[in-house]
Description:
Pfam families: Alpha-amylase (PF00128), SupH-like_C (PF22157). The chain is an alpha/beta fold.
Amino acid sequence: MIKDLWYKNAVIYNLSLATYMDSDGDGIGDFQGLQRRLDYLQGLGVTCLWLGPFQPSPMKDDGYDISDYYNVDPRYGTLGDFVEFTHGCKQRGIRVIIDLVINHTSNEHPWFQSARKGPDSKYRDWYVWSDRKPENADQGMVFPGVQKSTWTYDRQARGWYFHRFYDFQPDLNTANPEVQAELLKIMGFWIELGVSGFRMDAVPFIIATKGPDVTRPEEQFDMLRTFREFVQWRQGDAMLLAEANVLPEDDMEYFGRDGDRMHMMFNFQVNQHLFYAMAAADAGPLVKALEATKPRPASAQWGCFLRNHDELDLGRLTDAQRATVFAAFGPEPGMQLYDRGIRRRLAPMLNGDQRRLELAYSLMFTLPGTPVIRYGDEIGMGDDLSLPERNCARTPMQWSDEPQGGFTKSDTPVLPVISGGAFGYQRINAAHQRRDPSSLLNWTERIIRMRKECPEIGWGDFRILDTNRPEVLAMRYDWRNNSVVVIHNLSDRPQDLSLVVHGEGKSPRLVNLLSEDHSDPDEDGRHDLVLEAYGYRWFRFGGLDYLLRRSEG
Ligand code: NOJ
């Protein structure tokens, strides 16, 4: 396998322009503000930024309602600022991927405004219409409890239009060849401006058949190949990362059996079972999720994450498992959302306990895939449950203890900065944490550095090691005669284990990558280890030293 596949071992950092850094004092983050934070991001060690949508938008769904695909929302700057930004990233060796929101547009998009005017509009067939109210209009809502239907009557259009998401997000008729050509054009445009790929929003819905008579939508998987071929023709190393919360049995359809569809997908299966594992101190179901999502083409990769800008979706757990996670991490109704998930940030879920945060992140960084961090999680930011829906976990980045957390000079930030209490900017901010060697920020920087020095995790195959302790997850990765063993104690009690690790016939010495506490096998070749509550270990053994091997190219 050629090592050019950069996304196999990247460290991705997701941020939202609006709430990252405001440079002009209007209370809204912008590209020039972000530009000033590129050295911070480079110092943290991330290798790829994923930007949430920043195109012109009425902002009714955090920018996931786009009204012009070929521009930057003036609140964030100009196309010129965008190109300066991608250039700044390039100079620092950081790649940029951006959200590609093409399942739907905003209802304010000129295409939809034209389509509403009547059947003769050039854009009528760019959307999905029905003359009558479809029978399944009250089914398939993505935001149950908030979204009332998937079809809405439009008076001007004299018809019903389909919207998988909110009613202000009419679905594009993605089966229409004209629409498909336009979607490729959008990708080509941003590639030309310096991006390395796209986080593709809502992929199962983009490729689903749509229409008033569609009772069981079917995925048109060939469309994914068309997207991939196109981006790769335009730019050989471009990458597509799919948001597709699907069952493991469908994974290969999305990756393509020949590795010719999506380069990456978020591993929602593992994400949900990871939270269950932490809630129940039971690695069993997580191991099953890891095994179930193991098959993938050699060039494909998983995106591994803890929290993102949406709710923590627990819809794939059993009722009992979900109840366990709710009880542990989101017991109050106000912490839950859409009958399936938790809307909190990670740090408050774990009571701000740094041992547990380190455990969670250590797990995420060592799962098979490429880690994806959410901005603010590197300093353990909290949430504001007084804000509606998912906005509670989208508050501005807390840079310092200056007013508004140093995010803006304005008194009216786009969303309130968390102030006061355990997670307020006065206590939790990047400036303080930079100066404290034991802070979460400095820990995150160190663990990212170590993760980059463990390419086995991104490239290699994993095996689950037997520990005889359901509370402990032990994994081994092998790649090019080098091996890494990672062990995590999910429970709040110390665990002693006896581990057998075979290395070329004999049991090897395990070199601890995070401290001087190495482990030599006993006469029977077993490693006797004691992991403290929420303890974790990263070990290496094998032939060549990693740093030597690196020069192999
Ligand atoms: C998934 C995005 O992650 C979410 O934030 C958004 O609301 C929907 N897609 C609709 O675009």
